[in-house]
Write a structure and sequence with these properties.
The longest helix is centred in the middle third of the chain and has 17 residues. This protein has about 350 residues and is of the alpha/beta class. The termini are far apart. The chain has twelve helices and twelve strands. It has a six-stranded parallel β-sheet, with helices on both faces. It has a six-stranded mixed β-sheet with strand order 7-6-8-9-10-12, sandwiched between helices. Helix 5 runs parallel beside helix 12 and helix 8 runs parallel beside helix 9. It has three domains: about 55 residues, 434 Repressor (Amino-terminal Domain) (Orthogonal Bundle); about 130 residues, Rossmann fold; about 130 residues, Response regulator (Rossmann fold), CATH 3.40.50.
Length: about 350
């Protein structure tokens, strides 16, 4: 049951939240609809007060007056991939605070499923957030032209986007491996439709030339643990002493396969993953990986989408936001083998 406003029998309103926080009602409205326009500490106080009062916007009234559905579609390529857990949580919490329902769709790493879903959501959602889109640039741009849309980890001019800067962390990983004496390194590539994979390879190729090390591209591989076995076999056959994998799932599969082959990590081969998913530090050995603020990326994407939907006078909208990444060093990387 909804919490009632103090001393009354009515549901809490933005005025109740404003009174609790000592701010104007207009500030509460901005914090819940376009969060990036409000100071972080003030926004957090408002969100905490809204949760404590169990505030629920009058969604039906808003929908009737505006013609909106008060729903937002969130599309991810693989809902079983732990990378997306925090992202989904971030979008969910931010949308809930603003009075929107999240429509979560697993597009199954399929551009066809994604395109069909985007088309269907035009009728049932006010806007769409697409993570790691597999659509072509032209199709994604066309979708953004007809529907409020924000892409995560997909950089297409004209499409509002939140970019997780994994290429910079990939370069950090290469620096780390080179400092350990590795001169033959493999990049275990992700899907050919993944812009992130392409950007990371470009960053590696440029950094390798500066460092004077050899980097080979192996793959593509599906971003799943099961792909790790084939990736590990390819890496061993190629003669490299270290690998930078497209994501942690592939890297974890590689750890398992290398153990089956009797090879030690990191003594015989070093492995670097990407995403720092839950469990990466529980591997044997713990996985060196690239970490980024995934939940925050989801929140920022929602803020950018709400800015499009509300189009507040003079408020403006952001078209691009870059989230920083960093390398987390654990036990799966070590000095290059002496025989190498």
């Amino acid at each position: 049951m909804a919490t009632q406003a103090a001393g009354t029998d009515r549901p809490a309103t933005i005025h109740d939240i404003a009174a609790r926080c000592g701010v104007a009602a207009s500030t509460v409205s901005r914090a819940l609809s376009t969060p990036y326009r409000v100071n972080v500490r003030t926004r957090e106080r408002i969100e905490a007060a809204a949760a404590a009062l169990n505030y629920r916007p009058n969604i039906q009234a808003k929908a009737l007056s505006s013609g909106r559905t008060s729903a937002v579609g969130v599309l991810v390529p693989d809902i079983t991939n732990p990378f997306y857990f925090d992202l989904i949580r971030g979008t969910q919490l931010q949308l809930k605070a603003a009075g929107y329902t999240q429509l979560l769709v697993d597009t199954e790493e399929s551009d066809e499923v994604e395109a069909t879903t985007v088309d269907q959501l035009r009728k049932s959602a006010d806007g769409i957030i697409v993570a790691a889109s597999r659509l072509t640039d032209e199709v994604l741009l066309a979708a953004a032209a007809t529907t409020p849309l924000v892409a995560i980890n997909r950089d297409v001019p004209g499409v509002p986007a939140v970019i997780i800067d994994t290429p910079s962390a990939t370069s950090q990983a290469l620096d780390h491996l080179a400092s350990l004496g590795h001169t033959r390194i493999a990049y275990i590539a992700g899907p050919t439709t993944s812009q992130s994979s392409t950007r990371r390879w470009a960053a590696l190729a440029g950094a390798a030339e500066e460092l004077g090390v050899e980097v080979r591209r192996l793959g593509p591989f599906a971003p799943k643990t099961q792909s790790g076995a084939a990736a590990a076999d390819a890496a061993v056959y190629s003669g490299v002493t270290a690998c930078i994998a497209f994501n942690d799932l592939i890297a974890i599969g590689m750890l398992q396969r290398l153990r089956e082959r009797g090879l030690r990590v990191p003594e015989d081969m070093s492995i670097v993953g990407c995403d720092d998913i839950f469990g990466a530090d529980f591997c044997n050995p713990p996985l060196t990986t690239m970490a980024s603020p995934i939940e925050q990326a989801g929140r920022v994407a929602v803020s950018m989408l709400l800015a499009q939907l509300n189009a507040l006078a003079g408020g403006g909208t952001r078209s691009r936001s870059v989230m920083p990444t960093h390398l987390t060093v654990r036990g799966s990387t070590g000095p290059a083998p002496a025989k190498a």
